[in-house]
Amino acid sequence: MKPILEIQHITKKFKLGEKQEGYLALRDAISNPFKKKEEKNTAFFALNDISFDVYPGQSIGIIGKNGAGKSTLLKILSKITPPTSGKIICRGRIASLLEVGTGFHPELSGRENIYMNGSILGMRKSEINTHFDAIVNFSGVENFLDTPLKRYSSGMQLRLAFAVAAHLEPEILIIDEVLAVGDAEFQKKCLGKMNEISKSGRTVLFVSHDMGAVQNLCENSVLLNFGKVARTGPTSNVIDDYLLNTNRNNKWEQLKNIDKPHFSKIEAIIHGKQPNIRLRIDFTINSPAEMQPSFVAFDIANKRGNVIGQSIPNNNPFICLTKEKREYSVNIAINGFVPNDYVISAWIGPHNSTTYDHQKEIVGFSITESPQEGRIFPHTPDHGNIILQSEVSGKFQKINLS
Amino acid sequence: MIEYEIKPQNKFSLGLKELWKYRELFYFFTWRDVKVKYKQAALGILWAILQPLVMMLMFTLIFSKALNVSSDGIPYPVFAISGLLIWNIFSNGLINSANSMVTNANIIKKIYFPRLIIPMSAILTALVDFAFALIIYAAILIYYHQEVSMLKLFLYLPLSILITVITTFGLGTFLAALNVKYRDFQYIIPFMIQFLLFANPVLYSSKAFTNPVINGLMRANPIASAIQLCRSIFTGIEVDWQAIMFGSIVAVLLLLAGIYTFRKTEAYFADLA
Predict the structure, then answer these.
(1) Residues from chain B contacting residue A27 (CB–CB below 8 Å)
(2) pLDDT at position A161
(3) With a cut of 50, which residues of chain A have pLDDT below it?
(4) Helix or strand run (H / E) with residue A79
(5) Cβ under 8 Å to B: A residues 181-220
(6) C-alpha separations of A332 from A41, A301, A308, A336 in Å
(7) ipTM of this predicted complex?
(8) Percent of chain B, pLDDT > 90?
(9) Contact check, Cβ <8 Å, B36/A85
């Protein structure tokens, strides 16, 4: 089977000046007619020799840090901007949802916007007519169809936009960060629709920072790093690779003067051996003046950002905030944690409704030893991050493994 | 199964096939612009009629009553409105299309379709206004009991509109492309329009000049040709077909230059806008 998309050595170069200024001033062209011709050596490669194939029916996740080149790649794929060199062979219609709601006009009614947006996205008027009821049903704005869009809430606008886009019928669908907004229920609906699209044999390219969504939707993924393909393969492997690259140090320091009580130093140290492994968090608190006594909380999350648990050493305010620098150590039992990388967020405040300082995902630590003695099969993310302590009673059978 | 390639743009093409594929977008963009333009206005589409009417009255007062400008032997309001109708297609079309790429930047940055549709629809919007303004035109012709030869009306009027649209489209796409690159044109265009209003025989007769150089320029001016054609419907003055031909050639050259510039820079609009 031939690939539906063959991406061959795609490179996109920006001159740094051009990228910053956006558009040029005529004055520059007149006063500096020669300067422009000089080869500026401050070229910036948004994409550098990208190659990979996509086969029909595949859902491919594209992940990477901000500035890795994800959006540029999608813009080239959707023909919004041309590559500097290289080529892409497409064997099907591409439609992109680079940002839903493109072409929406606040003065037009919902009905009019469905037609406008649909036709900009590449639908025929007859196609929109056939899907019209389905679009309206999906969006749930039936009662406001003839109201100008400017009277819609942002959630309604988003729902309408996604509804139009979801009824496109291209062979290849490009989706970029559509799930960033909307309520939980609607996000679920969107994920369901996208799942349905990818199951229906359509090829989907999906860009998102939501690793959970990428994992759910895409079997395979491409990891971009500084404009290059860093890794391709099954999504869970690629995601782990990506997250490994974003690992936190175990030590953090802040030297700036802040006019609120704040953490100035946090360090995470693992000590002890299983089953008595402990995490020690050393932290220093600075305060510009005398403030209300406070207490601290630490959230520990896995590297996908899911919080596993919180440690509150003492829920009565115990830290007297004076101009004096104060150092503390907290010991946390983490003997149930499976081998993985974890990140810590730190919080300080006088009351659960008042925050003095909140440092998110500031330091990290990793566990290498399994909490289960003698365990030989690996720990997989599907079964969480903690081995629950359990005891069995009943009749034991002794099996000789050798 | 369709198969195509995305690669750096090397050779020049008009992309007519693609324009045809996306033909419905012309309708939708024009429809949107007309709708949005008059949606918040209490008088709505009446403005398309009122604007040329007010302009005509104003110019009649100044040029005919105060300055006594010759109007080729027809009542000055008839003379003025026939020039103004053509002029309005040109000036509105030019302003709309020159700004169109910038005002639609958010769409251009996100979705692909042949970019030429945007300035073209902007001119179509001006034509919709023109269609409504024709009502006032007809009313004035009836009011002043102008004898109109039907043959001339159905031959000359479409021809003069065609020349105007071609000229507007050429200049419009040219300016639209430059406007994306150099925002200075946003400030240049209003002056240009004011200058051109007086440089074209909209308010005075093209025979007002005796200087051969200016006359030569007038004959090569496509807008002057279009206005002359439009007026000859009822002045009975023989059409200077040589001038019309020159004007048409210039119009077509402008069109080619405009589309060429536009297509050359089009691919980078999303990077620049």
Answers:
(1) 184
(2) 84
(3) 18-22, 37-40
(4) none
(5) none
(6) 52, 14, 13, 11
(7) 0.80
(8) 19
(9) no
The β-bridge partners of A14 are: A44
SS3 state of residue A268:
strand
Residues 80-119 of B with CB under 8 A from A: 106-113
Give the pLDDT of residue A248: 66
Q: How many residues does chain B have?
A: 273
CB proximity A98 to B under 8 Å: yes
Q: Does residue B20 sit at the A interface (CB-CB below 8 Å)?
A: no
A70 touches chain B (CB under 8 A): no
For residue A271, count other CB atoms closer than 10 A to its CB: 10
- Six-digit token pair at A184? 């939980």
Asked if residue B221 lies in contact with residue B151, where contact means CB atoms within 8 angstroms, the answer is no
B252 has pLDDT over 90: yes
| Dihedral sign computed on CA atoms, order A48, A207, A240, A5 | negative
Phi/psi at A80 (5° precision)? -75, -35
- Picking from B32, B180, B267, the nearest residue to A108 by CB comes out as B32
List pLDDT tens digits, range A229-266.
888 999 888 887 787 666 567 888 887 778 888 999 99
Give the pairing of strands A262-271 and A43-54.
Answer: unpaired
Distances (CA, A) of B263 to B113, B129, B174: 13, 28, 10
Q: Do B108 and A80 touch (CB under 8 A)?
A: yes
Nearest-CA distance A75 → chain B (Å):
8
- Report pLDDT digits (tens) over B52-101: 888 888 888 887 777 777 777 778 888 888 888 899 999 999 999 999 98
Measured between alpha carbons, how far is B270 from A76 in angstroms, rounded to an integer?
11
Per-residue model confidence (pLDDT) at position A37? 47
